[in-house]
Inverse folding.
């Protein structure tokens, strides 16, 4: 039996309105928590999470953050 560990990278874009501007670390922590919760259902974990602020737009009720989340989930294949 051969084991192959693959780490495919995926991404998604999120919008979040907040009262003040936040940096990438805020979104990385939030995404890591959510992604790890989802991955644990399948017995896995997230190996890396990065956030990239695409834009911050001022709106009457807060700052709209457009953020790209890039993450890696290890996948173990058995042959």
């Amino acid at each position: 039996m051969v084991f192959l560990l693959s780490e495919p990278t995926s991404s998604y874009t999120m919008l979040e309105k907040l009262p003040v501007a936040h940096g990438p670390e805020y979104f990385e922590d939030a995404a890591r928590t959510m992604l790890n919760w989802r991955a644990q259902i399948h017995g896995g974990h997230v190996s890396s999470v990065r956030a990239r602020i695409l834009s911050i737009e001022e709106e009457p009720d807060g700052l709209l953050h457009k953020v790209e989340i890039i993450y890696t989930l290890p996948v173990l294949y058995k042959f």
The beta strands are 3-6, 9-18, 48-59, 62-72, 75-78. The chain is about 25% helix and 50% strand. The mean pLDDT is 86.
